[in-house]
């Protein structure tokens, strides 16, 4: 981990736009050297939070601490953070090399020194052969690498990424995901990545922060967010869960732990339903179910099991689960 690594802490941080509260007094500590994903639907406050950390939005209330420094009111260049924008925001008239070196030029660093550092970073992101190309001559993935190198040249303690993969095609998105994780591991400093993609957050993050309506619903490692969602919102947003109500409590049941049968199982943890839809998903078949007790219910049936005795739309079904497979949700 770099010697200047430091925890980032948000203390009662709020952002208001007129009468609208976009971020509502959130508290969050992001450990130094970790990969943190701010995850949630559009309008949940994740991008406003990132922009406040970057200094591109003024804080309405609260504080942003980086190590022992309060950076809440500092200009972006003095915070120790760097932001990689969703659009990459490369200068179209400059080469890849000069795009990367630009911030050092603005700081008065001489051409030989800034180009030397820019070449080092282009090599890090495997873009050395394209150093003299303009952004219009680069693919989306190549532009992203240049944008990353440009953000890194200021030697930030925290790199902020605003939906950096959203403009890429699915194949390239998966490849660049792996590269972001590798770069974060090799560089050793903190990455804070905004995304609305559950899959992206699960693949990248050490720490997932699920946001909803300007507040934090859960902060946990990816496997914990998926296996033990804190609230009904998290269970539904992450997907792959059924939300049931038993004895006045809300419980989450993973769809891949939801069993289907043509006769009652006799353990009491079951209900009757009707097959509403069947979707082949490769390794499993998603069977959606209609029941009065649970408005939205689904089961992931392993491919071999399904095709051994296929379910048909309209067929009655008994839905069951093991007691240990349900997880209590906060009210």
Give an overview of the whole structure:
- This protein folds into two domains: 8-227, P-loop containing nucleotide triphosphate hydrolases (Rossmann fold); 241-328, OB fold (Dihydrolipoamide Acetyltransferase, E2P).
- The protein has helices at 46-54, 96-106, 111-124, 140-152, 170-187, 198-204, 222-227, 232-238, 303-308, and strands spanning 8-17, 20-30, 35-39, 61-66, 69-70, 81-84, 158-162, 190-195, 207-212, 215-220, 241-246, 249-254, 259-261, 270-280, 284-290, 297-302, 316-320, 326-328.
- It has a six-stranded mixed beta sheet, sandwiched between helices. It has a five-stranded antiparallel beta sheet with strand order 13-17-14-15-16.
- With 331 residues, it is an alpha+beta fold.
